[in-house]
Queue: 3 jobs
Job 1
Amino acid sequence: MRVDDLGISLRARTAWEATDLGLALVRANAARVFGAWFALTLPAWLLANLLCGLLGALTLAPFLMWWLKPVFDRSVLFVISRSVFGQAPGLRETLAAQRHWGWRAVVPWLLWRRLHPARALLLPIDLLEGVRGEQRRERASVLGRGDGATAGLLTFIGVNLEAMLYFSYLALALMFVPVEFLDPSLRAMFQTLFFDPPVWAQVLLNLALWLATSVVEPFYVGAGFGLYLNRRMQLEAWDIELAFRRMAARLAGSAAALLLACALGTLGAPPAHADDATQAAAEATTPPEAAEGGRRTLEQWLGDTWRDDAAPFDAAVREAYAGDDLRRTRRELRWQARDSAKSDEPGEPPEWAMAIGRALGFLFEYGLWILAAVALALVAVHWRRWLPPLAERLRASPGAALPTEHDIEAEQPLPPDIVAAVRERVAAGRMRDALALLYRAAVARLVQVQGAPLPPGATEAQCLRHARALGDTGYAQLFGRIVGVWQAAAYAQRPPGPAVVEDLLRQWQQPASTAEAP
């Protein structure tokens, strides 16, 4: 690797500044990075969904794509690692390199290193340096010692960003739903996507997760590569090496010019005689400081900044050590009690405080055990009441979990004779269906009496509020009784007796004038 070809500014950066550098590299090569990413991941996503669909396990497709992330990360790392040195590859070159580049190094990242939190920082070691064995362990330990915690936080941030984008895609569809239909639409969406979803819904969820990963993962790899570059610069002093190379290049140019001048001077000098040779030898043994014109010669060679003493250098060193970067001490201000001798030696608390502390500790310790015993006793006593309804709910199908939507809002017309239909269901032992039919008829009559439609998906509580708006009428009281009996049967699993239902039907058959009388 040639440090001279680096296209970034070499300077000391903090860990988070290094991640910003990696993000800037991804943005600068966005077309190449995302082009290669989608060209590799889209066929893999289609193949994973096809195979998992044939096996009847579409939910495994996102897990398979997540597990293969290190394979897809190679394309991002291939592009940005070469663009740093001014050799950004094209799409065809990047795709061709994926057939052979880094496969041996990426295999451990699909096995025992897959869950490593610092994957973005350590993956360039295997793909770019190619070290193995003990040398690789030492290299990873040295690089992770400085920025390992930042790499772990970077992984945590990436996971949260993917989850945020995933749920944002799902919420995007709800933004186009009118407010009055938002509640039933939200219930329908969760019922379709998360409770026994069909094949198209599972594919749609997998697509949303793949899109979220495609947005976040290239930037995650780029941020880790920025940490890797910054850590290597700190350990190997790339900035100092580059400064020395530039200085050597300048001095090499100056030396060539000096040699050329000496050669031209030698060619143009007159022939030397014996006396001249003796005088030249005497001048050669004379130190420059003692020879006349020696100072002027050194000033010509070394420039105007040459000094014959070290005073400017010593002053520069003292100024550097006095700065904040090299200062080993720092100044802190803090509040301190006036009587510092007493404040530094805390005394024993009084005996009464110790007694109160022991009493509170005893109460809290044994109080928790008593509460746990009471809770277990309540469970043992009342298990017969809550266990059958719970077992029935677990055995019920997802469609029957919401009795209001299944029984009440079904798109079935009401029978012409409500009383006869309800009595027929009661006689057949279908008490819950009978009450559902009576409740639907009561809601329809409420709309007729009120003269205004109810909001879509209105609950029992909303219907009761609309019934109370009628005032203290007979039908408002009857509607309240019907709602109470229905809720007890549908939600509390407490169906009423046939006499109660018959009494409701008797009031239902009263004329409208009598039913609405106070």
Note: The two ends are 94 Å apart (CA to CA).
Job 2
Amino acid sequence: MKKYIIHPILIIGITLLFFCGIPYVYAIGEVNIKDGPLKNNELLVTPPDGDHLNEDHSGVNTWITKWYGPDGNYTNNSGFNTSGPIDLMSKGTNGSITDVSLSTMNGILKTKRIDVDWDDANGGTRGWTVFDINHADANNMVRGGPADNFDMYGVIVIDSPKQLTSVMSPSHDDFAQIWLNGEKWYNNSRWTGGVHNVDFNIEVPIQKGTNVLVYRCGEGGGSAYLNLHFDDETHDTVKIYPDKATDQATFFNEIDDILSVEPINKLTTTWSDIKRH
């Protein structure tokens, strides 16, 4: 049997880490989705099962817990595989807002005057509000409604002082779709296996100024969670909204100063430039 000798300096370093208060910094593992956004023929394609990482991100303290979105879920979705390919935002606004356009400032602004009007069987009319989720709760999408067969939307606005090549890490149960600045960057119909478990770290461009991200998750049965965090550099650099807002009015008060900085809707033309920084 091969013997391993631990160097005394390493032992001292580990001891200092635990007993001298040196803060723990979580390091994201492999970035296994690159070169997005998804192309038209990839929009509803789930990554190959063998590509998943099965990473435990329970040590992360930057999970996003405040979201802006409809004040209730789309219910009775007939299962996430049925609802996933349907643009539910378009369905509820007669095409005025779509899943894609919601991930732009133009779409965000439309939510000031356009509610989501789904059929009564699917939740009825939904206004827009700010809501909190508990990132450790394996049912954080339920929000007081039915526990099975629904879809939830969450929106955040990211204000960045510079261009960034960022990494986002989603955890979800079940069908997750993520759009950023008018492009779709993630589609996965498989649950990740745990509330803090991440299967894919996705490289995305954060543009200088205002960025809008839409996270939609469809639930079938069992646990129902949606979680997201970025790499440490991103969280150290950007400001994410909602911050202290508690409803639609205070959300727009928070982002009022950055509303004039509209990101380019189609980032494919600038992604190569961003990656060079």
Note: The chain has one domain: 30-275.
Job 3
Amino acid sequence: MDSNQIQILIAMILYMTAVIVIGVVYAKRANKSSDNYFLGGRSLGPWVTAMSAEAYDMSGWLLMGLPGVAYWCGLADAAWTAIGLAIGTYFNWLIVSKRLRRYSVRANNSITLPDFFSNRFREKNKIIMTLAALFILIFFTVYAASCFVTCGKLFAQLFGAPYIAMMIVGAIFVLLYTILGGFLAESASDFMQGIVMIVALVVIVTIGTAKAGGLGAVIENSKEIPGFLEFFGMASPTLDETGKQLVDAAGNPMFGAKTDYGLLSICSMLAWGLGYFGMPQVLLRFMAIRDEKELKPSRRIAMVWVVISLAVAVFIGIMGRSLFPVEHLTKSGAESIFITLSTSSLPAILAGFVMAGILAATISSSDSYLLIAASAAAKNIFHGVIRKKATDKQVMLVTRITLLVIALIAIVIALDENSVIFDIVSFAWSGFGATFGPLMLFSLFWKRTNRAGAIAGMVGGAGMVFLWKLVISKLGGVFAIYELLPAFIFSCICIVVFSLITKRPSAEIEEDFEAVKAGN
């Protein structure tokens, strides 16, 4: 390990120490009860709510996955995805947050998403709760795997160490931290990590642009690649049989003719915004804020962070292709462009702190994913269905065992160092968006929604994600759209149809709905 690597390591250790201190500070309070551990006793302020919601929502995907897409094939895919996410963020905070905060209290003070859906429909046999918990376990395990891939790629490139060993080290750290501090520690550290992430993005884009010769130079270089800097066209890297981009005799990366980027492709990428309505990690923040009146300033804070972060992340990928045109010649390798820019543009000690931005994003996401998945198993399945008289200590024990099992499965999924973070996240995102998004909207805003519709919507949405991704999309053409869009629509249809052909909700359920609508 050379002196630069040592400096980078020192900076990252200092950051990790700060994260651990936060965990220790909040551990005692978090472990007083499962309510504190899973939802922080509904005590979050507007700044922590906003920053923690967006920091772990974006994860390492923001610093590696999104810039990697822009670096690999240009502006269109990355930009339309970012626009969809920004729109989805705004409307989720605007129309869902306040009513969910109010309804979760009315629905027997629900502290998890499966709790809320189950209590919302006053079910006795807990089918909705069990199904919701199982889907959370499935999709969050995939999400956690994407975070572990990020850790592995980061440390492997920085220190020249084996990918698998570094991925496992990162996973162990995240697991220990999650077990230690729970929701409060996670939210408090996410606030700090959200600041680190946006500072890291702005610093790198500023220095990188100057190093490339200014904004004009970046734009001119990008225009030389067919379709690279267009909203309605996309660059096509020329690849060999192994998927590696070819380089010409002059050492320049080779591209084919641009491909058209039509309305269907745009709608497909904008559909990313639909995912927000079903994201447990974001919805829990709405439930955890101490006062619903604080959601408005929290929304403003969140939107400023999201717009700046997404725009800068996309531009980093564009700028990276100008500065390092042949540094990363595979789709998977392209996701390391942020690391390359950081280590080449900054003194080692500062690069270490910027690298902590990636680690911050990864930790803020993976600990949340693990915690929510564990709560689904322990609080909803174990305590809600299997052993209703379980003590709080037993629930916490099952939580920690579940955390370990989920982490082990996620590690197995993440063993392939050629995994593309963007692809892993997109599948899990579509899973949550289609499974819970339509149900959340109908539960909050349509009184006629009943238990049968809720079950059909969840099963239909989740099933269509798998069917479209694994079967229908292989047909190509119009069927090659992002699976979230057709699955979301199908889930909505299932909810409406099954709610209308079965018995309407009871008077008590409709009374709850009207009370929440009236602001009670």
Note: The longest helix spans residues 163-211.
